[in-house]
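Design request, tokens follow.
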């Protein structure tokens, strides 16, 4: 098909009022792409209200004559503090019926131009990368990234475990340590433990209080009652944070517990605490009525997380790739 006549479309920045219509676009894309990600209007509003997201400069909506979304794009310019590379992340999608007409290519080009601006504004002294993610099965997205000169740089798995299957028997907790439910009064200690546990992991930067409060324990999907901590006295040495997404449940009919973060501080590793956290969480989830548990893992994770999840019965559901091109 020939390139779309962009004069027939309206391109503008998003506002919070666009959340319901954007949720409809994402639902239409998910029906075609089957990525396992479902959002309702409240979820979309939470995404659009993210810290450091400048809606006027970092989002693009593409609208047809009827006022409905044809495509959208958004950028995350990264935190104020970085460890090595300044990564600007892009997301976006095109309505399935409008694909193949050059809209995605135009959208990605505009995002790349804005990403270069963000890099110069925030971290011009550091190497810069423009990163996008795509599930292997969405071939049109992969083809777009390849044609734009992106290279694959990281591989990930979404993994699932059926909670109707037998659960593992766990060894005793190491002496001097105990497992407890997440408690709000320990939230700051958990934030700091997470930053320490993921220091040096690819693409990870320690979340500040604002990001932590929006995306982690302040997220509307966070389930504190189904999250766990490992304590040494009053010190948080390990943690597992759980999320439940209503839109996923409504779309699939499966009540899934999503393990968003699991970590052990480096000084406390090699004591089986990852097994204790995740193995104990499986029992918590089943007792709470969940039918399945899911998580995402970097296949090159240096702590051996992939092997741990496989030993506990997790299976690969969907592979995905991070693609990147240099900024500068």
């Amino acid at each position: 098909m020939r390139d779309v006549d962009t004069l027939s479309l309206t391109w503008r920045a998003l506002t919070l009022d666009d959340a319901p219509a954007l949720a409809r676009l994402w639902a239409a894309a998910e029906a075609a792409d089957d990525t396992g990600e479902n959002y309702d209007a409240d979820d979309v509003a939470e995404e659009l209200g993210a810290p450091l997201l400048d809606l006027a400069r970092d989002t693009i909506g593409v609208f047809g004559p009827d006022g409905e979304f044809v495509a959208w794009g958004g950028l995350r310019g990264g935190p104020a503090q970085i460890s090595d590379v300044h990564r600007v992340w892009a997301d976006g999608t095109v309505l399935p019926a409008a694909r193949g007409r050059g809209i995605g290519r135009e959208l990605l080009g505009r995002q790349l131009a804005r990403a270069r601006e963000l890099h110069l504004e925030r971290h011009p002294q550091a190497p810069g990368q423009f990163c996008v993610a795509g599930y292997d099965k969405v071939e049109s997205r992969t083809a777009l990234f390849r044609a734009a000169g992106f290279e694959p740089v990281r591989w990930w798995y979404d993994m699932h475990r059926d909670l109707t299957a037998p659960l593992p028997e766990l060894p005793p907790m190491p002496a001097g340590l105990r497992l407890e439910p997440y408690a709000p009064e320990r939230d700051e200690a958990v934030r700091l433990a997470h930053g320490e546990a993921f220091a040096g992991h690819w693409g990870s930067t320690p979340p500040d209080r604002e990001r932590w409060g929006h995306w982690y324990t302040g997220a509307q999907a966070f389930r504190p009652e189904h999250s766990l901590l490992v304590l040494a006295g009053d010190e948080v040495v390990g943690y597992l944070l759980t999320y439940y997404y209503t839109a996923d449940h409504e779309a699939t009919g499966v009540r899934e517990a999503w393990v968003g973060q699991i970590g052990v501080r480096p000084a406390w590793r090699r004591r089986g605490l990852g097994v204790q956290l995740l193995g104990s969480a499986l029992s918590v989830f089943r007792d709470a009525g969940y039918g399945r548990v899911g998580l995402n893992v970097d296949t090159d994770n240096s702590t051996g997380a992939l092997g741990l999840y496989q030993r506990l019965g997790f299976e690969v559901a969907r592979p995905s790739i991070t693609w990147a091109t240099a900024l500068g």
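Comment from the thread starter after seeing the answer: thanks! The chain has a mean pLDDT of 94.
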